[in-house]
Amino acid sequence: MKPVALFTLPNCKWCDNAKAYLKSKKIRFNQIDVSRNKEALKDCQKHGCNGAPVILIGNRWICGFDKEKINKELGIK
After folding, report:
1. Where are the membrane-spanning stretches (predicted)?
2. What is the per-residue pLDDT across 28-37, written as a single tens digit (0 to 9) for each?
């Protein structure tokens, strides 16, 4: 399984949805709060993501909570 990182912000409904979705699919992930980690925020912005959540699967950046892209990258249905 590819490593998964979930970049989130506090009180973000879409971040909570992404977290719940990954958990429901039993996907292990590392959660990073970009309000506390400015380097992570810069990485997200460098890859064209200006909102939250941002999901990094392997070396593929997904801006926003996009189930279709997440499933494709992880090879799940």
Report:
1. none
2. 999 999 999 9
9's CB contacts (< 8 A; 6+ apart) are 15, 33, 34, 35, 52, 53
pTM, entire model: 0.94
Domain locations along the chain: 4-65
Confidence of residue 23 (pLDDT cuts 50, 70, 90): very high
How far is 40 from 37, CA to CA, in rounded Å? 5
Q: How many whole angstroms separate alpha carbon 15 and alpha carbon 12? A: 5
Q: Rounded to a whole number, what is the distance in angstroms from the first to the last CA of the chain?
A: 15
Place of tokens 């949805």: 17
Distance between CA 56 and CA 11 in Å, rounded? 20
CB 10 within 8 A of CB 33: yes
